[in-house]
Amino acid sequence: MKNFITTIFLxxxxxxxxxxxxxxxxxxxxxxxxxxxxxxxxxxxxKSLDSYGITNDKGRFRLDLKKNTIYTIQASYIGMKSLxxxxxxxxxxxxxxxxxxxxNSLDEVELxxxxxxxxxxxxLVYNADSFNTGTERKLEDVLKNLxxxxxxxxxxxxxxxxxxxxxxxxxxxxxxxxxxxxTKNIPSSAVDKVQVLKNYAEVGQxxxxxxxxxxxxxxxxxxxxxxxxxFGNITAGAGDSEANSLYLVQPKLFYxxxxxxxxxxxxxxxxxxxxxxxxxxxxxxGGFRSPSQSSGTSLSLGNNDIGFLLLQNNRAKDIKTKFGxxxxxxxxxxxxxxxxxxxxxxxxxELQENRSxxxxxxxxxxxxxxxxxxxxxxxxxxxxxxxxxYQPNASNQLEYEALxxxxxxxxxxxxxxxxxxxxxxxxxxxxFSFNQSLNxxxxxxxxxxxxxxxxxxxxxxxxxxxxxxxxxxxxxxTANSLGLDGAQLDYNFGQEKRVQxxxxxxxxxxxxxxxxxxxxxxxxxxxxxxxxxxxxxxxYLDDQTEINxxxxxxxxxxxxxxxxxxxxxxxxxxxxxxxxKFTFTPGVAAHAYAISNTQTGTKxxxxxxxxxxxxxxxxxxxxxETLNLSYRMQTQFTDVSQFASGLVLNNYNSLFSGSxxxxxxxxxxxxxxxxxxNMFNYTNVFANINYNKSIDNVRTVSxxxxxxxIRVSTPFNSNFADESLSANGRFQRTFGKLRASVRANLNYxxxxxxxxxxxxxxxxxxxxxxxxxxTNFRTAPNVDLSYRYSIQDNNLGPNTTKFFxxxxxxxxxxxxxxxxxxxxxxxxxxxxxxxxTINTYEFWNASLSYRKDExxxxxxxxxxxxxxxxxxxxxxxxxxxxxxxxxxxxQPRYVTFRVRYEL
Length: 903
What we know:
The protein is 5% helix and 63% strand. It contains 5 helices and 55 strands.
């Protein structure tokens, strides 16, 4: 391996020393430099594209060429006649200018090669074949090759550091623009062009009156042979491991025509390839945009899910998954678009963890706890969406969307605690939600635009929790607080809970375009929300009967029955002004709030009025360089569960009692971001700093039950401000066939709480640094070297912990003899604290596939995951009352043989 890497980098060095630079300026007939002109160099002997470039704002270009070689230089610019000139390189660098003339004739230079990159306004177009190396199999592989485009650790697509909001194929939404489903499933062989749409406006009528600088969309253009025909692939495979027999079936079928499109993705496997995780399900917005997201009001409906353990990087001790998804769009006429999708996913997971926990201010002798857990999970997740858009003319657009979510999840956890003995925890939930929106956009004339947006959400959540504690001794104090019957063999108790939410979010916008550089925006909006929260704690006795205990805490019930109503009516004003390179958008919103909760026959109200200002300033330094400063004041409101005064079981060792008198919090947020994308020297830079200060934030008073680490928490409005500061940035530069990047993420937070009657200031500081080198050969093997270093520093009251993770990694992919594709990746991880290395673990995966040629229908692949048979990995985490280090067990070595058929 070392010799192979050395050979690769020696090849890069030799290639670099054997090149000469062609530099110059592209001008028009008047001598003015042309920005964003394209220049390519075609090797006359091999007929291959050896180099390409794009001019900067001064018209300068640069090409890296081979010595003693004859080239055809072609330069092109929109509206100009393309230039075609033969040039021979020697041993020295060349400085040469070119002049383009207006295209006044039909005679045109024939472009032998399509330009790898073209730029027109806010649209950046990549020709996929110019960057492909032959080892690509899905869209994700194509995007990784493109300068300025990255796939982050969460599977999201980033362009110039900004997360892509929507992905389309031939202008049609792919599962409402979900980038992860697209990148993992669309075959690379179908991709012709990748169009990056900057400053993307979801509604074209509003493109000229709103700031869309952070909105980026990608549109995939298909190759001609993929239109009006079914395309895609079907993969089937089998294998064996020490645990069980392995299988996978993965059909991916697509059809696109001007009138309609149909997509189907299926996946059945037991090898840990999770197509759609539980996290993906709850993060999947379905394309809905909250009308009030920029109003200054932040209202939480709460997370009333069960305490589900999440997979770590799609790894667990055992994973079985079934996934099916279908998406369609239909345009029966030019003015009407109908679309929708259906997604179903089932997963069965086995998880095993060993965890060491340090508690803040726990009773003497109980500051540390070691736990072991074995967990089985079953998830059935489903969603169905229908969309319609009617646009009879350029001045009118009507949209309706409806999305239904239904899931069923169970979790059975066998748990052993060094302090509380053996515990069984059973949880299940069957939540339902229905979200619908109605939007209408109307352009009265050139200076007056109206927009109405309304959204209605219904949620019904019913998490169930049951715990069985065999060791009663250390739980006796908590059992008395809960009012449990101690004369039983064990403590078998639980909780039924139901949260129903009904929310309407609507607004009416009016824009008056004062002139080409300024406009006024008036907004009238409202948020109306109702939540009903019911819960009760029960105990199973030895004779299988059920009783409702009476808590031993004075004035606290074991049941909740609370209604929570929220109302916000607001009027907003914004003024947008363009002055030179600056765009200013100051604004203010006046809010009238009315909040009430009713429980145990008592109604508590909180009505007030508040002005919330905001400001955005954009400095467009160059076409591809932007500085953006924004400030926003927000009022934050919590959900119904925080007001419920009866006891709530978060789990066996965490009890909660809400406070009916809670008030809202006020936050100040300042964000500064910088973006630069220079195609002249292939440099991509972004940086972002965000500061947030929260006043009267909702925090908790935590009291440990005497002689245990069981705690009872109650929320309160903190008199001290909570603060957080985050900074992240990336610098990326391409040097010939080598792309180098450096990235850093820093996050600091400080918040206040009360533990055991003592105020506690909790501080957390996390740092992650990553350096990466990647080659970009067209025919030689490509190597991606990366080094990640992270620090997690936590200061929770008297406890201070610091964890370090060092993780070098390497990825190699190679096309061998134009028929074999070899891919492998290896990572080494060192997890330690300030005193010692806690654990080291390694992951090595590899695959070898055979395809006769790029047009072959069949491909055969052998793939191995976790070749070193690593059985666990480590991580650290912090909560408001503890810091933990976790060992997480994963799947053993898997080897599978696969056959892929291309349609």
